[in-house]
Design a protein that fits this description.
Layout (H helix, E strand, L loop, with lengths): L2 H39 L16 H16 E2 L2 E2 L6 E5 H13 L9 E5 L6 E5 L6 E6 L6 H6 L6 H4 L7 E6 L8 E12 L5 E5 L3
Parallel strand pairs: 3-4
Antiparallel strand pairs: 1-2, 3-5, 5-9, 6-8, 7-8
């Protein structure tokens, strides 16, 4: 391999690493921003549930789920029209819950999808009804800098490809100055959360 090909290979690898790290940092930033907005906008009364640790059983998990479901479905003795189906909680707690359900052969009896994240405070959880419009993520993807947005601008021509791609609001801008083997890459995004129905969002904590 000549030195030019080696340089190009190193440049491509460096660029890929940069993009991977940039997208991961953006994802972590918006994970915290979105969940922060959701916890602030939560309107359902949250019950205190038991802490799930290494000694917990699947029965403990199901008991907590039933408490959370009842708390969201009924407020001031009136049906709210919302039923939680997804819970965001610290990663270690999500793992402990999944293990407890698996050991007790109760995975199929669970009412929720458990999502582990670093954006939820320790000993807290966020339950949501994701089957009904409780909140929306408003995002802008610039077709000049987003491959997906550019494809979406011509959906008929790109329908097969779009079906394989997840929605994205991440934009990438690249410029190449006169200097050889040098490029400038900018990764950016614009998004916000709009709370539609606070009763479909519940934020609470664990007991000791």
């Amino acid at each position: 391999m000549n030195s030019r090909l080696a340089d190009v290979g190193r440049l491509d690898a460096t660029l890929q690493v940069f993009l991977n790290k940039s997208v991961a940092k953006l994802a972590n930033f918006y994970d915290k921003a979105f969940l922060g907005a959701l916890t602030s906008g939560a309107g359902a009364s949250a019950p205190t549930i038991s802490k799930i640790g290494s000694t917990a059983t699947g029965i403990d998990v199901i008991e907590n789920e039933l408490k959370i479901i009842d708390a969201m479905e009924v407020k001031n003795d009136v049906d709210t029209g919302f039923t939680p189906n997804t819970i965001f909680l610290p990663r270690a707690d999500a793992t402990a819950i999944k293990i407890a359900l698996a050991k007790s052969n109760l995975l199929d009896d669970s009412n929720f999808e458990y999502v582990g994240t670093n954006a939820i405070a320790a000993d807290h959880y966020l339950a949501m009804d994701l089957q009904n419009p409780t909140a929306t993520v408003e995002k802008y993807a610039d077709p000049n800098y987003s491959v997906i947005a550019a494809l979406e601008a011509e959906p008929e021509a790109n329908s097969d490809l779009l079906m394989q791609l997840p929605q994205s609001f991440i934009n990438v801008k690249m410029t190449e100055p006169d200097e050889p083997q040098r490029s400038y890459v900018y990764v950016f995004a614009e998004a916000n959360v709009n709370i539609l129905e606070p009763n479909g969002i519940l934020y609470g904590g664990y007991s000791a």
